[in-house]
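Structure request: Bifunctional metallophosphatase/5'-nucleotidase, Oenococcus sicerae.
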Amino acid sequence: MKIYLLSTSDVHGYIAPSNFVDQQSTSFGLARAKTLIDQFRADHADDIVLTIENGDFIQGSPLTNYIAQKRTDYVGLYEKLAKIVGYDARVLGNHEFNYGKEYTQSAIPKNAGVLDANVFDRKAHFYADPYKIFDFGAVKIGILGLTTEYIPHWESASHLMGLTFENPVQTAEKYVPIMKKAGADVIVVAYHAGFECDLDTGQATEKITGENRGYELLQKVSGIDALITGHQHRELAQLVKTPFGSIPITQPGYQAAAVGAIRLDFDPDSKNIIHRDAKLLLTAKFPADSRIMESLSIVQPELDRFLDEKIGEIDPDMLIHDHFNARLHGHPYLSLVNKVQAEAVNADISANALFSNAVLGLPHETTRRDIATNYLFPNTAVAEEITGQDLLNALERAAEYFVLNKDGSISVSDRFGKPIIKHYNYDYFSGIDYTFDLRQPIGSRVKDVSYHGQAIKKDQIYRIALSNYRSSGVGGYSSYSVTKIVQSSTVDMVDLLTTYVSNNSPIQSFLPNNLTIITK
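Returned structure:
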């Protein structure tokens, strides 16, 4: 008897095969994944096929931003899409909470099949079912749903009123025996988080904070037969050695570019799994499902009209042609974001990240689409009051992004580049002049930091603008803390940038010169 566990994770509102930048077709999108899943089901009609949506479904694209901010009456689209795909189980991702818990349960109703073992609303589960057992007669398959406990470190407290997030490892240790006692022959954990350690060596690949506990889950919890992960946007499919045998895991990237597929061969007589493996199925070659595309037909035309509205001009432009160089020396687009962020909270030091190499910058004639496809997160601006030493520490963390190679070239350090490149954790600063001496060891690279022409004083208080995401210190910036916030903006950065470009057009584009890099 063959059991297949298909999963998508981190779809982030990429439903059609489009990147929203233009009308070109892309190699990803939920509409492609739906066709793949249908074909897989048809090809395995005599087998058991269960599908899991593993979180971060309702946020992360211009479409999701438009629905949340302009047309909340369209919020039912998400449940319609999930039903078209035919998910058997769903898990909450961290970005499900970006617009508040009421919006979460409006977009993902109580009866949507969410499995939610470690999120509590006061004393009750946020969603009622921590797990579900699917009875196929000869085999009973239990799925346990978990999400990262780290959400309160990123999310606005007002969005999480009454919610608590428990340790997923301890939660699994509690529920796996309960599921076994309830008759589950096979235990599957669907976890919206990833791996904190190398899957082959067990060596830590990131600072152990609790954000990702996938490896710990496998090493500590007996009885797990398969683990579905997400959150990190990695593409993983393999067997992982544990004290309890080799366990198949998947993590299918993001934007529905792949579907995770775990296979378990189950012997109903002995009640044992006799074979197991894992792979990723790429969606690129599959056409977009017509029902998925039709479901977008109401919102898509007005979304396109809204996004294509010209809001201003930039002279000549703020397009990004070399992303590494932009991080190395600064860029007009980064300066603009820093300026807008700082003005929102009355600060004149500001820091932000070039999230990924998919950020294109702003053209001469800038539309809402240009803003929305560059700044994809519903971040707001906050101001923190920090000491000069705190600022120096934050700069040292940013300086870790670069590594000076023996041949004199510069590349991304393993501290940011493994297991995935976390460009979003490298911040560029405006409002100060500063130098990175890459010849020096980590922790001693920051030189000649000045503010308004005066050297930074370690015990002086400075006001810095950050995104609400960075304000908790995530990404290794331990000198920041929500306890240091002195002002917050209630308007998200997309709207702030849109308003600024509109009100100040035409905007002159200038290459900043406040960051100096020393290599020899």
